[in-house]
Specification:
alpha+beta, Zincin-like, three-stranded mixed beta sheet, globular, binds zinc ion
């Protein structure tokens, strides 16, 4: 089982890498559908990351980088909020699906770059 301390350290490292220090980011370990989820409040620059207690140590970097990238990429969606209210559900779903796909690809790239770093402790 992954400790809160380990999760906290991984979050801190990715927050620094993504330059997200201006956000107040908390996390909570709780039973959820996925390994990790995030809720972001762009107005107040706050986010809560939900982490499943089932998560394994080797999954932390991928899961946490993914959730934090949602903050960065989701800012575009947050800016388009008035527009999103005027499009169909199918169109809105497509925007969310695209965000998910972009975030997932970026997370893979960042994690493989981190693995190349000899300073990174595995
Ligand atoms: Zn996602």
């Amino acid at each position: 089982m992954v400790s809160r301390k380990e999760v906290s350290k991984v979050i801190e490292d990715w927050v620094n890498l993504f330059n997200l220090q201006s956000y107040e980011i908390e996390f909570t370990m709780t039973e959820i559908k996925n390994l990790a989820e995030i809720q972001t409040d762009y107005k107040y620059k706050r986010a809560v990351i939900y982490i499943s207690p089932k998560i394994k140590r080797r999954e932390l970097n991928r899961a946490i980088s993914h959730e934090l990238l949602h903050i960065l990429v989701g800012e575009i969606r947050a800016q388009l909020r008035p527009l999103l209210d005027r499009i169909t559900q199918a169109e809105a779903d497509k925007v969310l699906f695209t965000e998910e796909s972009v975030v997932e690809q970026l997370s893979r790239v960042f994690c493989s770059l981190v693995e190349f770093d000899p300073k990174e402790v595995k």
